Amino acid sequence: MAGSKRSSDAATELSAGAAEADKQAKKLKRSGKKKGEAEKGEGAAKSVTSMERRKKRKELDKLKHRSEDGAAVAKRIFNDANEGVVEAADGSAPQLHIRVFKDLAAADGGVREAAAEQLVNELVEIQKAYEEGGGVEPGQNGSILEAQKDDGLDSCAPSVRYAVRRLIRGVSSSRECARQGFALGLAVVVRSVTKIDIGALLKLIVSLLEVTSSMKGQEARDCYLGRLFAYGAIAGSGRLVQEWNNDNDTPYIKEFVVTVVSLAGKKQYLQEPSAKVILELANKLPVQAVVDHVVEAERLREWFDGAPEAGNPDALLLALKLRERIDVDSQAFGRLLPHPFSSAALFSGSHLPALVHCLKESTFCQPRVHSVWPVLMNTLIPDGLLQDGCGALVNSAKKHKKSRKAASPEDDLTKSIHSFFEVVIEGSLLQSSHDRKHLALDVVLLLLKRAPAASIPVVLSYKLVQCLTDVLSTKDTWLHKVALHFLKELGNCVASDDEKRVAIIIALQKHSGGRFDSTTRTHTVKDLMAGFQTEAGYDVFSENLKKLFLDEEQSSEEPSDQSQTTDDNSEIGSVEGKDSDGIYGNGDALKSWVIESLPSVIKHLKLDPDARFRVQQDVMKFLAVQGLFSASLGTEVTSFDLQEKFRWPKIATSIALCRMCIEQLQSLFAYTQKSESLVTPASLEHSDLPSYFMHFLATLRGIPSVSLFRNLDDEEEQVLKDIQATMAKLFKKEREIVFDSATDPDLKPKADRLHAMRYVLIQMVLQEFLQPDQYLEPAGELVICCEKELLLKDDETPEFTDVLVDTLLSLLPQSSASMRFTIEQVFKYFCIDVNSATLLRMLRVIKEGLTRRRVQNAEDDEDEDDDLFDLEEAEEGDEAESDDNENDEAESDGQTDDSEPAGEPAVAAKEQAEDSEDDSDEGMDDDQMFNMDKYLVQIFREKRNQAGGGDSTQAQLNLFKLRVLSLLEIFLQQNTERPEVLTVYSHLAQAFVHPQIAEGNQQLGQRIWSILQKRILKAKNGPGPKDCELDTLEPLLERNLKLASKPFKKKKSAANPSKKKQSASWNRHKMITSLARDSTFWILKLIDGRNLPEDKLQKVFEIFQNTLVEYFDSKKCQLKSDFLKEIFRRRPWVGHHVFGFLLEKCSGAKSEFRRVEALDLVTEVLKSLVSSNSEKENTDSSKKILKRHLSKISHLIAELIANMPEKQSRRADVRKFCTKVFQMVSAHSLNKPFLKELTQEAQNAIESQLGDSFLSLKKEGYTRTE
C-alpha cells in the first residue's frame, strides 16, 4: 500500500533523526509490519550516535538559514556536496543531492526557488547522461534510488523517477511550506524533463496519494490537498500546452480535466481550487484547445448540468470564466449560462432564479468571499464601462429618458442591477440565515465600489437598509459586528466621490425615515456628511436634499391631516396638534432631517470667504422660503429682482416644519457670527449675510403671490418695519466706522457693538414669528437702544446700558441657544459700561430662591454656611423674608424693585403651571409614554411638569440662573480689574455654599465653582489695590477662615444615609473647604497689594490670632496646619506679626497633637525670618526679632522636653524642631541669651533628650563668651 511504501522509504532515508527513527520503529512493531521493515527500523535506531551528530548539524544549518539572506542560502545549496549525496563510481558523473528536497520545504521563497532550480538542473543532466548511456544511469548501482518498474516512467532515469515520486509525496506534507516548494519543483521538472509521460504521471499521483478507508481526517485531507497541488503543478508547467502543440488530438487534456473534476467531487473545499486549476490550464491553452478539450470534457459537462440543483458556485465560476475565455456560445454550460449569452440575459429576472441555489451555497468559505462574486460583479459592471464614465452617462441618460425609443446600455445596466438585487439579495440572501445576510452585505460592498452613483438607490434598497437597522439595533448577535464593518467600509467606498456620498446618505435616510443614526446608534450619516469639504460637493448635496424635500411622491405618502394650507383659516389651529401630526410623522421626519442637515454641513466645508458666503446664502434662502413664506398660487414663484425661481411642496408645509426652518435660520446666523473673521469694508459690501437677509425678506414680501406663513397684526408689522429701518441705519453706520477704523483703530469697539446689535435684531425678527407675544416689547426696547447707540459720539458713554441689560435678561428664560449666543455677544461689547446697580440685579438672580431657614438646630450649624458671605444685607434689605415657598419670595422681590427681572421667569413659570389644565397624558404610565416617539415624550414630559407645578418652576429658575452666570462670566473676563469683582465674588460664594445648591442644583453649583476658580481666584489680573477697601476685605477674610475650619457633619434627618449620598456630601464639603482656602489666599494677595502700614492691618492680625485660638482650643476646628503654613509661606508678614502669639499658644496647648503639629508653623515663620533678612543690612533686624521672642522660644522648648510625646514619630518631630532652633540661634550668635532663659533643670532635661546638639550649642556659647 501507499502508506506502507511511504513509511518504508522514510525509514531508509538518512535525513531522519534519532528520535524520528525510534518512533518509526515503535510504530512498525505495533502495526505488525514485516520483519525486514522492523529490522530496518531497528538498524536505524542503532545508528543513534551518527544521527545525533547529523541532527546537531541540521540545527546549526537552521541558524545559518535565519541569518543568511536568500542569495547566500541559494549559493550554499549549489556548493554543498558533502552530505546526503548519492556517490557515483565516476567522480565526473552528474549527481543528485538529496538535501535539495529539504530546501524545497523552506519558509523562504528564495531558498525554495534556488532549490528547485538546482533540482531541475541536476535531473536534466542525469536524464541526458542516461539517454546517452543507452538507458543506464552513470554511477547507478542499485541503491535506494532504484525506482519501481511499474510506475510508467520507463523512459526516465532512476534518479528522475525517484525525484518525481518524492515530489508527489512531498506535496502532501503539511510541514512548513512543503506543498508550495514541492509543487514548484514538480512543475519545473515536468516542464524540463520531456520524457515524463503525462498519462503515467496522472496515474502515479492517484496511486501514491490514494485515500483509503483506514485513513483519518487529517491524513486524508493531506492526500487530497497533495493531489490538488500536484495537478496545479502540471497545469502551471505548460506540458499540456506542449502536448496539444505536438498533437491537437492529445487525450491528456481531457484526461487531466476529468481527473481534476473527479477530485473536486470528493470534498466541498476542493471545488473552488479545482476550478481555478482548470482555469489556469485554460488560460495557457489556445482558445480552440479550450473549446475542443476543456469545455467538451465529459465530466465537466455533467458538473455544469448538475450545478443548479446541487448548488455548486464553483461550477458557475468555472462556466463564467471559460465563457469569458472562449467568447463563443456553447450548450456545454447547461442552464448555468443563458444561450445566447449576454450580460442582460444573465442578470434577467427569468434566468437569475436558476443561479440562486448556487449563489446561496457560496457561504461555506466565509469569512472569505467566494471568487464567483467578483466575477459576477465584473460581468455586471465591466471595467471598461467604469473607465468610460458610466456614472455620468447614466445621469445624462435619465434626463432624456422620454425622448428615446430604444433602451440604452445605461438603462440595461440599471435594470440588471435591479433584477440582481430583487432576486438574489432581497429575494434570497436577506431572507435567509445570518451567514447569508453576512454574504449579502459583502456582495453589496463589492458592488458599491463599482456601481455608478445613479445605481446606489437600487443597491441600498429599502429591505437592505431595514436589515441593517434591525441588526444594529441589537448587540447580542455576531452579525452586529459584520454590520458595523459594513458601515465602515461604506465610508471608504466614497472617499473622494461626492455623488456617491450623496446617493448613499439619501438612500440611508430615505429608507429609515431620516433616523438612521438614531435607530442604529451609530454616526454613519453624520460621518458621511462630514466628508463634504468643497463647494461642488455641497452643491450636489444641497440639490438632492432640496429635491427630497420637494418630492411629490414623498409628499403624497404623508397623512391627509398634514395637507393644510397656510391661509387665514388654517393657521389658527393648534400648533401642538400640528406638531404631533407634522414633524413627528413619517413624512415630516425626513423633511426635518433635510432642514437640519443643510446648515450643519457648512461646519465641515473648507472654503474661502466668498465661497462660504455663497453657501450660507443658499442655505438661508432655502430655509427662509420654506419656513417664512408660502405661495398662494401654485408651487413655483419667480422673482425678477433676485433672478431666481422658488418652489414649495405641493402639500403645504406643516407649522412644525416652518418653525424648525426658522430655528435653523437662527442657528445659521449664530454660526455665521461665530465664524466671522475680521470685518472689512469689502466683506460688509459683498458678503454681509444679515443685510442680504433683510433685503431678501423685503423682496419676497413684495411679491403678490407670496405671503408669510402666518399673518402679522398691526403691532407686529410696525415692529418689523422699525427693525428693518434700524438695521439699515446700523449697517450704514457700521460701514462708515469700518472705513474710518483703518486710520483710527480706537473706532473698532464701536463697529463691534453695531455689528453685534444687528445680529440680535435679526434674531428678534425670527423670534417674532415663533413667539410674537413674548418678544414684541423686548424688540421695541432693543430698537430704542440701537437708535440711542447711533446718536452717541465716539467719546460718550452710553446711558442706556441698564435698559439694554434688563432687556437682554428678559430674553434669556425662553431663548434658544442661537439667541443666547447673540445676547452674549452684545453683552460682551457693552459690559464695560455696566454699573453696580445693574450688576447687583444680575447677582440677585443667582441668589433667587435660596431661602434661609428660621429654625436651626443649635448643635447643627451646617445651614449657616450661606450667612458667611452675606455682605450686602444693607443693599438687599428690601428682599422679602417669607419662607413659605420660592414663588412668594420671587413675587416680593418683584414688588420691591420693578426694574428687577430676577423674579419674572419664576413667577411666569409658576402662573403658567397653575393655569395649565392639559390632561393629555392622563391614563398613561411611564413605560407607555417612553415607548412613543422621542419628540412626543418630550412634549408630554413638559406638560406633566407644568401640571406638577413646583418642580417645573425650580427647573426653569435654575436654567435661567445658568444663563445669567454665562453673562457674569463674560463680565469677569472683560473687567478683571474693576472693584465690582469683589461684589460678584461675595454673591457667588454665598450662593455656592448654600445648602440648597447641594440638594438639587449640582449643575448650578459646578458652574459657580468653575467661574469662581477660573475667572476670580486664579485669574492673572484682579481688582486694583486702590479699588479694594480694607473694610470689605477684612470680613471676607474672617468668614473664609471660619468656613475653612468648619467640620464635616452628617445631617440629623438622615439616620442611615446611603453611601452615594454620604460620598456626595463629603465631596461637597471638600469643595467648600477648598473654596475657602483659595479665597483666603486671594484676599491676602489683594491686601498685600495695597502696601498698608502695620497700624492699618491690626484687624487682619486680630483675625489670624482668633483663628489660632480656635485652632489650638477647639476640638471641632478642622483647620489644617498645611493651610496655615502655606499662608505664612506666601505672606511672611502675617507670620511675623503673629509669631509671639503663636509661640504662646503652642506652649500652652492642651492637645499634644496640636502642639506637635504647630511646630511646623513655627518652623515656617523662622525660615521666613532668615530668608527675608538674608542680606547683611537686614541681619540685625532678624536678630532683633529672634531676641525679642527668645524667651518664648526657650519656654516652648522647655515645655516640649518636659512633656515629651509618647509616640515615637512625634518625639522625632520634637527633636527635629529643637535642632533647627538651635542651629538658628547659633547662626545669629544668641547662644548665651538663649541659655540664660532656660533654668538649670530645663537644661538638664534638654541635654538628656537631645544630647550632642544641645551640648554643641552650650559649647559655642561659652566659647563666644570667652
Automatic annotation (TrEMBL):
GO terms for cellular component: nucleolus. Coiled coil: none annotated. It is found in: Nucleus. Residues 9-19 have a biased composition (Low complexity). Residues 874-901, 914-928 have a biased composition (Acidic residues). The keyword Nucleus applies. Pfam families: DNA_pol_phi. Keywords: Nucleus. GO terms for biological process: regulation of DNA-templated transcription. Its main location: nucleus. InterPro entries: ARM-type_fold, DNA_pol_V/MYBBP1A. Residues 1-67, 552-583, 874-928, 1047-1067 are annotated as: Disordered. The keyword Mitochondrion does not apply. One of its GO terms (molecular function) is DNA binding. It comes from the Eukaryota. Residues 34-43, 58-67 have a biased composition (Basic and acidic residues). PANTHER family: MYB-BINDING PROTEIN 1A, MYB-BINDING PROTEIN 1A FAMILY MEMBER. Belongs to the MYBBP1A family. This is DNA polymerase V. It comes from Kalanchoe fedtschenkoi (Lavender scallops).
